[in-house]
Amino acid sequence: MGCWFEIRALSAALLLSWAPGIAAADGAQCRDDLAILRTDGQLVNFTIEIADDSAERAQGLMGRREMDTGAGMLFIYDRPREVAFWMHDTPLPLDMVFIDPAGRVVKVAANTTPNDDTPIPSGAPVRYVLEINAGMAARYGIAPGAELAHPSVDPAQAAFPCE
After folding, report:
1. Are 87 and 115 spatial neighbours (Cβ–Cβ below 8 Å)?
2. Distance, C-alpha 83 to centroid of its chain
3. Residue 47 CB coordination number (10 Å)
4. What are the backbone dihedrals phi and psi of residue 6, each rounded to the nearest 5 degrees, phi first?
5. Which are the contacts of 71, defined by CB distance < 8 A and separation ≥ 6?
6. With the C-alpha atoms ordered 108, 111, 114, 116, is the resulting torsion angle positive or negative?
7. Which of 78, 62, 69 is nearest to 128 (CA)?
8. pLDDT of 65-94, one tens digit each?
9. Which terminus of the chain is more exposed, N or C, with fewer CB under 10 A?
């Protein structure tokens, strides 16, 4: 009976370590195509596309009808600025995570309305905006104070530096 319990516990631990979006390791093994968020001691990974020039940022996720659960798009600006996003021609409901130059989340706009032209302001100067599927921020506890690890965050000021 003890052996059966140990096998079930090991199986559950393996299943949880492979769950989509949850990082099993404590360190931030950064890659360009990965946004790692630390919140309440938990690491959450999103496989991302990068939008770091004006044409890519203007296109964003417009026209997309679906996105994998653990995916997203990271908008990167060359310097901190207040920004406003909208959902014009975006039929996919999103969470928008606004992030300062040190990688700290300053605002989350949850469950944005598809195809809505109403501006969604950052409310503070940001250098990054992470768009993920609606509901993911709440699911993983991503809120102001969470921290982003990504190679584009200056290691000298990063709240959660890459290893």
Report:
1. yes
2. 17
3. 15
4. -65, -40
5. 46, 47, 48, 49, 132, 133
6. negative
7. 78
8. 999 999 999 999 999 999 999 999 999 999
9. N
